[in-house]
Amino acid sequence: MDTTREGILKLGKDGEERLLLSQLLDKQRQARRYQQLAATFFLDLHQQALCRQAMARLGQGEAVLAGGFPQAERRCALFLPDYWESLDQAPPEELPFQALRVEARGTKELTHRDYLGSLMGLGIRREMVGDILTGPQGADLLLMGEIVPYVAQNLQKVGNAPVACTPLPLSQLEPPLLKVKVLRDTVASLRLDAVLTVAFSISRGEAAELVRRGLVQVDGLEMTKPDRPVEQGARISARGKGKAILYAVGGLSKKGRQMIEVHKLL
Questions:
Q1: How far apart are CA 233 and CA 228, in angstroms?
Q2: Which residue has the higher pLDDT, 93 or 147?
C-alpha cells in the first residue's frame, strides 16, 4: 500500500479530488508542525468519504469530521494539535465554523433553496456553507467563521422576506428531529446488499441489481459491488427507494446472524 503523498493523491479520480487530497495532507502537516487546529472548508458526503479513505491509507486517526452538531451532513475535516485528545477540548472561538440565526418576517415559510440561493447571491461559495436548518420563522445557518460578519451585515432579504441575522452559539442550535422508521433485523453479514434488504424491504436479488446498475451510494460514493461491507453510521441512498442510515450494529443472534438497526428517512 502506497502511503507516500503521490500514493494518496492517486486515490483521486480527477483533478478536483486530487486537489482536495492535497489540501488534506497540507492541513495535516500544518497541525503537526504548528500544533494548532487546522481545518478544511465544508465537505459533502462524497468528499468526506474520500477523506476517510486517505486517512485509512495513512493509518492516521487525527482527522475529525464535524459540522457544528452531531447529525450534520456537511462537515469540515479538522486536524487537532497533539495536546487535544478530542474536539471537545477546542475553545468555541477556535472552531472554523460558527452559527448564524436568521429570523424571517413574512407569512410564507422559506425553504433550504431560498436561503442557499440568497447566500450564493452574496457571492459566497458553496464550500463556505454547511447545513441550513430551516424552521417556520427562519433558519440557523452553519458558516465558515470568516464570513459570518459579512453575512450578518449583508443578508437582508431571503426570497421576498426581510430577515434579521444574529450570531448564535453552537450550543444553542436547534436541529430538526429526523423523521425515521426504525427497522431492526438480522443479516448474515454486513454486506451492502444484505443491509439494503432491511433498509428498503426488498429482496437480496433486487438489492444486488440496484448496486450493479449504479443506483446506490454509501456516504456519497457510488457503489458497484453488492458484497462491499457497510460500517455503522453509513448513510445509504438508493435511487427510487429513499435514504437510510445504518444506525447501530449489535451482537450476534442465537443463530449467529448479525443484529442491526437501520433508520429509514421518511
A1: 15
A2: 147
